[in-house]
Amino acid sequence: MVAVEYHADLKEVQSDAALARVLGEGSGAAPFDRLEWWQMLATHCGKSPRIVVARSEAGYLVLPLEDTNSHLEGMANWYTFRLRPVASAGADREALMAAIAADLADRSHRIVLGGVPNEDRSADLIERAFRSAGWTVRREQCDVNHILNVAGRSYTDYLAARPGRLRTTLKRKSGKVDAVVLNHFDHEVWNAYEAIYRQSWKPEEGSPEFLRAFAMAEAKAGRLRLGIARAGGEAIASQMWTVEGGTAFIHKLAHLEAARALSPGTVLSAALFRHVIDVDRVDLVDFGTGDDGYKRDWMEEVRPRYRLDMYRPLAPQNWLVFARSGLRRLADIGKRG
């Protein structure tokens, strides 16, 4: 017997001790699987949670959704590396996801999930369950995730395998930049990061309050790795990483364009890679989403991320979408003809 329930108030989830344990530290060895992450999204990013929980005697499966007023979407934003269902150990993921897909059929005409991984078969699981429950499912790759499997290497061995231009840059610039890695939250360093970010090539920060709250929480848990690079006493680059469950996550990085000649971002990245590989001894480094060229210099593998768009085929709200899709298919056929 599977029961499906919905939570708009995350305090309800927190008050359920067994469920809170599933969504607590170590639940998925990543911040994006934790209740704390969704709470900060709601507090600082204006998200409206609709957390779906399927439970049976064998365990739980949780699908984090948000209500956008027009339809349901994954509870995520620009800081989220990936979105996936979170299951307790021993749970029957197939049966629990099937129950969620069937129950949602009476509650929403459309559900959109972005950034879904499939190295753990999450995308397959979701697609299979929703198709079986009568939903029309469109699945397409929407992004990529660059990673490094350390495979037991030391930092020296890892660096030896980097492109020659990267190693040359480090030899030429490392003596000109002072790079430091902190395992705690430092207000002065964080203020420097925010100042650097505002002057960097990066787009406007989505929610500085969210990121600061996240950094402070990760520092309290011992997971924060905060990097700062200086030249002549001036802060010119900063990065935020976290380490959890054998993985180092690269969340944010920025450098001053005026200091670009010193390659401060490259020097600081090297210091952080050295720290997480030789000190933290991680198994994996995760560079998040995006196919930026500089990621290829540091990473060695690329994993796809998928967008799953699920529709109730008979819902009037979806007819215009289907009509437009049909016209696009006819246009594509016409072009091929």
TrEMBL record:
Cross-referenced Gene3D superfamilies: 3.40.630.30
Molecular function terms, GO-annotated:
transferase activity
Keywords in alphabetical order: Transferase
Q: BioF2-like acetyltransferase domain location, by residue?
A: 188-296
Query: Which named protein is this?
Result: CelD/BcsL family acetyltransferase involved in cellulose biosynthesis
Q: Which organism is it from?
A: Novosphingobium marinum
